[in-house]
Amino acid sequence: MVHTTLPNSSLLDKLRDRASTFDEMMALLKHYRVLPQLLREILVEDAIATIELSSEETLQACQQFYQQQQLQSEADVQAWLTQQGLTRAQLEPIITHNLRLERYKQAVWGNKLEHYFLERKGKLDRVIYSLIRVTDIGTAQELYFRIQEGEEPFDKLAREYSQGVEAETGGLLGPVELGVPHPSISKLLLTSKPGQLLPPTRLAEWFIILRLEKFLPAQLDEAMQQRLLNELFEAWVKAEVNQAAV
To answer: How many CA atoms lie within 13 A of 66 on its CB side?
Structure first.
């Protein structure tokens, strides 16, 4: 039988042994690849420290948290705090963290969303399109003329001849944002009209036949606003963390 014994020193003691100075601590954090996450947490906490909520907003956030954690009494709350190693004073900032963060995003980048949306719109617009790709130009030209003349439908020929995963869907792809396909494909689709069959085009080792089925312009609705806010926030965090970690 193998007997195990507890270490004589705590984990904090081990940490002190390995890193007794700031430089040693930084080296340790980098070694275990946790420095970026720590810097991120510090950056965000400092950023939202000045965001204040009303007493009603705080109360509502606390009540929602208690429901999610199934904490039905003060005793339940105290037991949860003990289990998590937290004090009551530490609980409210944790509960209101996400709400204060969203307020911060809106305060800093909310007035930039429309401009940023217009910059990004070319890649946010969505398309539904049909694609056939083959490696032989002769086959591509034959298929193009058969579709153009109405001899056989696009989907039938795509299932039979296309050499990519689109063959399984009869060549139909999407809806997908224009930033997702190969840039050459996106450029062709962007200048096409729905239903327009494009002649064979060389793309790397392929010859492709495209047809735009439907164009779905991006809208700056609530979901899009949240997405763009998150993008701007994450770009800021990344830049700040990278600069601090150098």
So the answer is: 16
